[in-house]
Amino acid sequence: MRLRRWDRRTSAGDARPRPGDEMDRNAGTPPTQPTRLHGLVGRAGLPGLVAGTLSLLVVLAMLGYLALILQPRLADLRQGQQAARDSNVAMLDQETGVRGYLTTGEQEFLEPYEGGLATVKEVEDDLVESLRAHPDLVTAAIHSITTAHEWQTQWAVPAVGTGPGGTEADQDGDGTLDAAETAAFLQTGKDLFDAYRVEDEALREDIKAEIRDTEGNIVVTLVVGGGILLVLGVGSIAGLVRSRRRLQQLVVAPIDDLTATVDRVRRGDLTSATTPNSGVVEIAALSDGVSAMTVSLAERAEAAERRERELAHRGARLERVLELSRDLNESLSLRYTTLRLVNAVRDLAGAARAELWLQRDGGQELVLFETSEDAGLRRGPQGGDGPEVVEFGAGPIGRAARYGRALPLDEMSTSDGETSSGVAIPMVVGARVVAVVAIVGKDEEALDLSLLDGLLLQGASAIQAAQLHTEVEEMSRRDALTGLANRRQFDADLLNEVERAHRYGRPLALVMIDLDHFKRINDVYGHRRGDEVLQDVAGLMTTGLREIDHCYRYGGEELCVLMPECSVEEAREAADRIRERVATSFPWAIQSPVTLSAGVAGLQEGVDPAALVGTADQALYAAKHAGRNQVHVAGP
After folding, report:
1. Which residues, including other chains, have CB under 8 Å from residue 348's CB and lie 6 or more apart?
2. How far lies 201's CA from each of 85, 151, 197, 207, in Å?
3. Do the Cβ atoms of 300 and 293 come closer than 8 Å?
4. Helix boundaries (H) for 105-178
5. What sections of the protein cross the membrane (predicted)?
């Protein structure tokens, strides 16, 4: 599809900013002249700068007023409050001490008086000094100090100086104080102290009121300063919002349009370019550049997109082939190898279904081993239980295997009556066909076989390797002479069965068998006949056993039977049947009859595999010592 040219001068007119005709895109008002970007950005931050400077000045003024005036004043008032409190406590100590002394005459009552007198002298100067900035409070403090001095000079000092029998208290001059004289003297001291108390309480109330006023001034200062900062903040925000709106109109919105256009161009979409309208010179120049770039890219976009699609499709197919090749080389599982192969062939060829046919019976027939259909293996056309089989050379699949070349399937009849066209391709290693791949195409769609040659060659080698591995693995676990499982397989199976029996508490029996006088059979009839005897005995052993029972050649002429889910008595009966069949199956062996001895052992709790074999061996030796051709069961 040919992309249209993006021209800035469309039906909206020439969008190039010119003095007198450029329109604000959002507000719709024509600016008087083009704007430079650096000037616009510089003016955008001016409201914030002014508001920030004023806010800083307000904060500095507020902090200066608080730190230099209100806070020192409050500290002095609190110091004066503490001094007045300390003076009051000292006066109470003096008054209490003097009264106690006058009442009892004991000198120890004068200690509070003397301590209080010293404290009063210390705090009087501090009291006046801390209140020097408040004349009213200084006057009240002097009144309090004066009444305290009057109490001390007119009552406390005479009382302490003359003692309980002093002349100042002795009104009748008889040298002693009677009750009336003592009461009158104490009343005089009380009146003087009450006068001090009134002045002191007034002073402390005045100081407390002044502290409240100062604290209120601090709160007012903070509130006023905060209000000013709030007003400045709101003004700053309003200015910033206005500047931001202007930047949005003249810079951000056009830049967003250009960015969206560039992003669409980057993604290959050159059909929906817009023309940003801005009064900023730099943005107009950038818009011209984007327009020229879009025109240049549009001329090559269609061809580039087509080439990209082709390369991506081919690259994905090659990547799939490489990935499958690695998997096939790494796997020795025939089932996994064939399943991966048929699914890959179906996907790469764009087919509806792919089938893999393996040769068997020496290459005389091919069997359907794997299919890409979800249903799994296809069955024979008659609905039999075995997989579908074709003869070598019969039909397109058989002929492809015989002649070693690809042949069309034409109308290939399937098990469910479908007919589909496709191709049968042999998979060759060297000069040998190991399998045939049948590819069934989709309706009216051509098969793409361009990448299958290398894949099928690699798959043929992988299938052959997996088959050889399976054969070698099977040979490593089978005795070549008798066809029974060998000692290696016996050890593995015995370990698994013992673990299972212990885990689930199930019975397990082991029968150890040894041919009697087998060396004599070899000496009398020859080793070839001895091998035939071993083969025949192996066949007799497997006859009549259950499907879950397994026979092994343990070594030499020793054989064994592993019997899961079998009690000792049932194992003994099975062993005796084997013994009877062997004893009656070799009538030609007159000079050295063919018989066997067997030992039977059942798995006990806590017994390991080696111990079970040892117990069965002991029972076998017991049978031999008892005269051979018999079965012995190991004791509990």
Report:
1. 317, 320, 321, 448, 451, 452, 455
2. 10, 16, 6, 10
3. no
4. 110-130, 135-151, 157-162
5. 46-70, 218-241
Task: Encode pLDDT of 193-207 as tens digits.
Answer: 888 889 889 888 988
Backbone angles phi, psi at 16, to 5 degrees: -70, 130
Which residue type is seen at 568?
A: V
Q: Which residues are catalytic?
A: 557
Q: Name residues whose C-beta falls within 8 Å of residue 520's C-beta, 6 or more positions apart in sequence.
A: 592
Q: How many helices (H) does the chain have, and how many strands (E)?
A: 17, 13
Tell me the CB-side half-sphere exposure of residue 35, using CA atoms within 13 A: 23
Rounded CA gap, 237 and 239, in Å?
Answer: 5
Band of residue 515 on the pLDDT scale cut at 50, 70, 90: very high
Q: For the chain, give every domain's residue range.
A: 52-233, 331-467, 487-633
- In whole angstroms, give the CA distance from residue 25 to residue 276: 9
For helices 253-266 and 281-330, the axis angle rounded to 10 degrees is 30
Using one digit for the tens of pLDDT, what is the confidence trace for 122-134? 888 888 888 888 8
Q: Which of these CATH numbers, 2.40.110.20, 3.30.70.3090, 1.10.540.10, 1.20.120.1730, describes 52-233?
A: 1.20.120.1730
Tell whether the torsion through CA atoms of 455, 461, 463 and 466 is positive or negative: negative
The answer to whether 196 and 151 have CB atoms below 8 angstroms apart is yes
Task: Kindly report the CATH class assigned to 331-467.
Answer: alpha beta
Q: Which long-range contacts (CB under 8 A, 24 or more apart) does 491-495 make?
A: 491/609, 493/550, 493/552, 493/562, 494/562, 494/609, 494/612, 494/613, 495/609
Q: Quick one: DSSP state of residue 544?
A: T
Residue type, 355: E
At residue 425's C-alpha, the angle toward residues 419 and 427, to 5°, is 140
Give a three-class secondary structure readout of 454-508: HHHHHHHHHHHHHHHHHHHHHHHCECCCCCCECHHHHHHHHHHHHHHHHHHCCCE
277 token code pair: 């309208």
Q: What is the mean pLDDT of residues 82-93?
A: 86
Compute the half-sphere exposure of residue 282: CA atoms within 13 Å on the CB side of its CA: 10
| Helix, strand, coil percentages in the chain from 3-state DSSP, rounded to 5 | 60, 15, 25
What's the pLDDT at 317? 66
- pLDDT of 568 > 60? The answer is yes
H or E segment to which residue 132 belongs = none
- Homologous superfamily of 487-633: Reverse transcriptase/Diguanylate cyclase domain (3.30.70.270)
Residue partners of 203: CB distance under 8 A and separation at least 6: 84, 137, 140, 141, 143, 144
95, 147 Cβ separation under 8 angstroms: no
Three-class DSSP labels, 327-378: HHHHCCCHHHHHHHHHHHHHHHHCEEEEEEEEEECCCCEEEEEEECCCCCCC
Check residue 350 and give left, alpha or beta (phi > 0: left; psi -120 to 50: alpha).
Answer: left
Q: Is 30 helix (H, G, I), strand (E, B) or coil?
A: coil
